[in-house]
Design brief:
It is built from twelve helices and twelve strands. It is of the alpha/beta class. The protein has one domain: NAD(P)-binding Rossmann-like Domain (Rossmann fold, 3-Layer(aba) Sandwich), CATH 3.40.50. The strands form three sheets. The chain has a seven-stranded parallel beta sheet with strand order 3-2-1-4-5-6-10, sandwiched between helices. It has a three-stranded mixed beta sheet with strand order 7-9-11. Helix 5 links the parallel strand 5 and strand 6. Helix 1 packs across helix 7, helix 2 runs parallel beside helix 4 and helix 4 runs parallel beside helix 5. It is globular and about 55 Å long. It binds nicotinamide-adenine-dinucleotide (NAD) and 2'deoxy-thymidine-5'-diphospho-alpha-D-glucose (DAU). The site of 2'deoxy-thymidine-5'-diphospho-alpha-D-glucose has 19 residues, from helix 6 and strand 8. 2'deoxy-thymidine-5'-diphospho-alpha-D-glucose binds next to helix 6 and strand 8.
Length: 336
């Protein structure tokens, strides 16, 4: 299979590329990535030298560049991860989010249509369902309700992707996963930020009362689910992918402090995120029934492995904390 992966230098995309190339499958893989602040080729170090891998630096919203990649690589399938993925950034600066997540997805869908690509998996998020009251859980038919420019852009791109099945009969599936964690995650998201700060003895900024609930999914479980959907998912269908581990943020933060041997006095309650969704909850019954997938990594085991990885890879953290990131960090936390 000739597999085009977009966003393969990011957190989840790079885990997927490492997994795909570790397998014995006969896969030729092309990673198309613009290398924004979140894209890091170091993440692919373990597999990048192989003959089954190639890298193309391109912006998914640049139709001519995307066309060149499709023309030369001629993919059989696309797994589309590339996105502006951080909610806080989308609040401070929505323009790149709309450009990449909406226009970029459109550009890829059009290229896949032109080149008659046989399979397209659009990687999306449970944030498109918005905040969900206890005791409910979203299934794939649950109404969409976006609270941030990020979730609105993902909801829009999901609908666009599904319309290419309805209109052009393209073989498109959409996945909607819950919060991922694991090695190589950029230290702007809750778990890696809190681990990095705890290891450095800095304060841990908890938004609002810290009682917001997220469902945690280990990144390798997510990647196995995407592979299952790529291979067995049906055209025009959406698949939820949850970690079956719902926890309030403050509980996650306290566990990180315990795992790093730091005191709870490092916790600092800061001004809440605007439009902050209180609770995400979804059922993954459909993907389990249709593909046999289920999450395998317990949160305790995954968190321990993640803390260990960040502890052992202080250089990686230092390298990704570039000038651009520091500027964002100052802007985001300055007023809180
Ligand atoms: P990330 O921010 O770590 O990586 C995004 C990657 O996309 C980077 O390599 C970046 O360089 C690339 N990229 C950004 N804009 C681009 C553009 N215009 N053209 C080409 N490449 C571009 O993101 P992630 O956390 O790995 O998320 C990957 C996907 O999974 C996203 O679509 C996100 O919405 C979705 N998702 C993420 C989570 C999560 O918890 N992180 C959960 C569910 C779904
Ligand atoms: O649910 C899936 C989504 O999970 C993905 O689609 C997004 O790409 C991913 O970024 C993530 O979004 P969240 O907004 O849930 O993740 P984040 O790590 O930014 O925040 C998790 C929770 O922690 C959220 O309730 C906000 C809170 N938080 C976050 C940060 C960065 C804090 O309390 N303090 C912080 O410093």
């Amino acid at each position: 299979m000739r597999l085009l992966v977009t966003g393969g230098a990011g957190f989840i995309g790079s885990a997927f590329v490492r997994m795909a190339l570790r397998g014995v499958d006969d896969v030729q893989l092309c990673n198309l990535d613009a290398l924004t602040y979140a894209g890091n080729l170091e993440n692919l170090h373990p597999v990048a030298a192989g003959t089954r891998y190639r890298f193309e630096r391109a912006d998914i919203a640049d139709a001519a560049a995307v066309d060149r990649v499709f023309a030369s690589f001629q993919p059989d399938a696309v797994v589309h991860f590339a996105a502006e993925s951080h909610v806080d950034r989308s609040i401070l600066s929505p323009e790149p989010v709309v450009r990449t997540n909406l226009n970029g997805t459109f550009t890829l869908l059009e290229a896949a249509r032109r080149y008659k690509t046989q399979r397209f998996v659009h990687v999306s998020t449970d944030e498109v369902y918005g905040s969900i009251d206890e005791p409910h859980e979203a299934d794939e038919g649950y109404p969409l309700k976006a609270s941030s420019p990020y979730s609105a852009s993902k909801a829009g791109s999901d609908l666009l992707a599904l319309s290419y099945y309805a209109t052009y009969k393209m073989n498109v599936s959409v996945t909607r996963a819950s919060n991922n964690y694991g090695p190589y995650q950029f230290p702007e998201k809750l778990i890696p930020l809190m681990i990095a700060n705890a290891l450095e003895g800095k304060s841990l900024p908890v938004y609002g009362d810290g009682m917001q609930i997220r469902d945690w999914l280990y990144v390798e479980d997510h990647c196995r689910a995407i592979r299952a959907v790529l291979e067995k998912g049906r055209a025009g269908e959406v698949y939820n992918i949850g970690g079956s581990r719902a926890l309030p943020n403050i509980e996650v933060v306290k566990r990180i402090l315990a795992a790093t041997g730091r005191p709870e006095s490092l916790i600092r309650y800061v001004t809440d995120r605007p439009g902050h969704d209180r609770r995400y909850a979804l059922t993954s019954e459909k993907i389990g029934r249709e593909t046999g997938w289920k999450p395998e990594v317990e949160f305790e085991e995954g968190l321990e492995e993640t803390v260990r990885w960040y502890r052992d890879n202080a250089d990686w953290i230092a390298n990704v904390r570039s000038g651009a990131y520091r500027e964002f960090y100052e802007k985001n936390y300055a007023g809180r």
